[in-house]
Description:
Layout lengths: L2 H6 L2 H23 L5 H9 L13 H12 L5 H22 L5 H12 L13 H22 L2 H17 L4 H13 L1 H4 L5 H23 L3 H10 L5 H29 L7
Helix pairs in contact: 2-5, 2-6, 3-4, 4-5, 5-6, 5-7, 7-8, 8-11
Amino acid sequence: xxxxxxxxxxxxxxxxxxxxxxxxxxxxxxxxxxxxxxxxxxxxxxxxxxxxxxxxxxxxxxxxxxxxxxxxxxxxxxxxxxxxxxxxxxxxxxxxxxxxxxxxxxxxxxxxxxxxxxxxxxxxxxxxxxxxxxxxxxxxxxxxxxxxxxxxxxxxxxxxxxxxxxxxxxxxxxxxxxxxxxxxxxxxxxxxxxxxxxxxxxxxxxxxxxxxxxxxxxxxxxxxxxxxxxxxxxxxxxxxxxxxxxxxxxxxxxxxxxxxxxxxxxxxxxxxxx
Length: 274
């Protein structure tokens, strides 16, 4: 790609135009054509009638935000669709900001546009649930963790703890993100230096403050969400299950990535080194 073009192209302007159009259209279209909310959003609406620190399937964040969306919308459900797209927009912005640290802005913009081609960021994202929340929360956690490791600023460590804490309060699955981040922090001499930084522990303290009420709630409710999670993944320990389930999951994810892979394959020929 021509270097003069990459420097003169105002990628940031196009990014915000794209994000605005995405949020506007994916809020408007389902609000107009759907008669009812998707299943998970309906479930969050039901949970949100009682604001407690946990529910039978998940921690509290999804239900509380659904209740807040209905409050803002005066009972109209279109705001729930808006909240879904704001989470997607947060993911787009975080990918853009992180991408610019490694690539020219136009390539960071392309990375965001490729995400739009995957169903997790369009059709699936109309359902406001824990998975949709994780799109924004995971991306923001990674962005600020990276900045914190590089620059060791208190604000970045606090934002890392903030978004990581609420990611856990959206879905326990977030542990699969946080564990690799912790391993990365301990793996290299340069990153291990941050373990001596008091700013890291300020972010860690904020993380534990956010998850503490739900943790106390678990002890008073017989760890019901843990039991539910274990029940969802439990199955007879046969060799076929260990082969079939990962294979089916891998194929399903490949199907999701096909549009992005096709678009990337179109852009790749003729690309010059940066």
